[in-house]
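Reopening closed ticket. The problem is back. First fold of the pair:
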Amino acid sequence: MRSVKDTYNHNIRCAILLAAAIYTALATAVSAQPAPLNAGNDRLTIDFPIGWLDSMTPEHVPDIAAAGFNCVIPYGYRLDYLDVAAEHNVGVIQYLCGWGGEGLTDFVNEYKNSPALIAWEIRDEPIGGHVMSIDVFTDCVNTVRAADPSRDVTAIFCVTDSRMLPYLELLDFAMVDRYPVLASQSSPSPSLYNVARDVKYVVEQSDRLGLDPPIYVAQAHAFPATNPLREPTAFESRYMTFAPVTVGARGIFYFAWFETSEGHRAEVAVNAAQLSSVVPAITSGESLTGVTIVSNRDSDTADHNVNDITYLLAKLTEDETPCYYLIATNNSGSAQDDVTFTISALPTGTYTAEVLYESRSVTLTGAESMTLVDDFADYEVHIYKITAR
């Protein structure tokens, strides 16, 4: 476990406050932040976590909250961290580091009364990383559930194949980390598709087991001394922010707070703000009432074990007007021209699609089945807000 930095650079604080201003300007939809804690709401509820993971002290929570993030996973154990998080409406997934034995029950009993605590993380990478046997993992899960049966239990996985399944079936939801951006690769990294592929696998297995959707842990770091990684570009970070959502993830954490530059931390905040602006649609639960969507790229021509284009269509009624949000990502590893989405059974009308954060629009054509045609650069993301004119 890395120690917390002794000093907190003033320039970092300025970068985060700048990102907060960008967040405010970009958040065009209803805020995804939870309601403030009060006597009538004594436990924080976060439907779609967007946050940071790293060794962070309570002093960092206000800046994280100000930059628009609603959740953290802090390495280490400090009860006052949870107190500060509750004051700033930030949820905490408490990392347990595979801690077992009698002391675990005492620890859970001490921490479980915090309203900021939303879940327990049993282990980071129990296979393929910080290895933990299934027997010890099971004992830890059972101990935590016995002491605090009201909260979810999770773990982060870097291995996404059959080896994770005995661990997965013990949890309420999984988290997936995949760090694809290598120092030897130019941007965009040709390995980015691994993010969508791995999350898709865990989504499918979670559905099979009846678990909640997984959360993705995105690369926002570089460890040049120990790993052949480089810091992602803003473009790559945007792909890693949205691609998991298009295949079924319902939350994201960025790793790591201290292992990235001030500039990239601000870029992450911008991408997270864009995601946060469409979370109300993603989590609205509004029925599409028979509306269906297909594309002419619903196949895996690149042999990536994930479709060339993946997408999510969601509905949110705004000011009594139904709005349809389409989030789409290119996972193919090459540019895709004339990608055609066919949307059937939309209410009668003439529709246009604003391409959010790109200062342009696309007109839908057709009648009973309407089509939206657009081009996608390699690993590009487009977010459309479709409304009737």
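Second fold of the pair, where the issue appears:
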Amino acid sequence: MTHAHCLTRRRNAFTLIELLVVMVLILVLAALGLGYIVFGQDNQHSVSGAQAVTGALLNAKQRARRDGLPTGIRILFTSGTDVKGRPFTFSSQLELVQQPQDYNLGTWTTTDGTTLTFSTPSAPSPDFLGGADYIGEIDQSTVQAGDYFVAAGTTTPHRIAAVVSQNSLLLASSVSPLTSGAYTIIRAPRRLPSEDIIQLPSTVVIDNTVATAPGTPANQVFTYCQNLPLRYLVDSMTPPPPPPPPNTPPGKPVAEIVFAPSGAVVGQGTGNDKVSLWLRDPNWKLTPVAGAPLPGAPLILSVQFRTGFIGVYPVAPWAVGTPIPPPGTNPPNDPYAYVKDPRSSGL
């Protein structure tokens, strides 16, 4: 009986095709890995900044609920030009602020409708200095420019233009025909002296630079941050600033996001739907160029005014530096599209 034996051939090497396939796979994986590492490092800067700002906002929101007083953050912007003459408006510092209770000690009188003198029949007398070093010192004076005076029996607030003395104020608008009576001063948020300035990581800033490229029509120009609640700080010891634009209060503009004890955002400039803060690496190119890559791997941090909800979103596809088209256009070209999408809750 004859047995047929099947002899198996042993392969001592890979075929050329197999080697090429393996090499291609290695190159593809290496390219993907390198891209992930590079993007991850750039994006991590914005992520760390978003975490820092979110932490400050949540802390303010909790303190507002705990203290029963509106509490929030003040964004300190710095404007200038870089070494190439390109303008920028950045912030890398935040302050924790809280709105003190209303002030209503004594009564007031006036002869011209704008200069008010305050007094009481007995001690203590109205004192607008408090623990400040000088009258009208920002964040330190009991009453300061930018607070609002409301005469008793009325609902019209009058902005305080200047603190004249310890018991005298100058209003930006007349209270005529009223000449005396009780009052309430609605005081603006002050920095909490017990809290240090919050410093963002060195690799990230809140960017409020003009986002559109030079030559964009004026009605289509916008800044990276959207719907910032702005107010103006006027310090009595600060030299008078240049004349402001028409209908603009004098002083240094700052952005403040202040939470009521209920969690909603309150204060000046909170009439829109939400505020959007643009966070990015400042070491990237500043000047927007139409169609260029997004500079600084940015993220958008959004705070809803009505609910106080905080979300962080990627920037939607956008030809950098180009105006945002009207809603409903095709194709979309809005970097804030994810923020505006009601179905999106952020990262």
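Update: turned out to be a display glitch only; the data is intact. Confidence is low (pLDDT under 50) at residues 34-40. The chain has two domains: 42-98+193-340, 107-188. Please close again.
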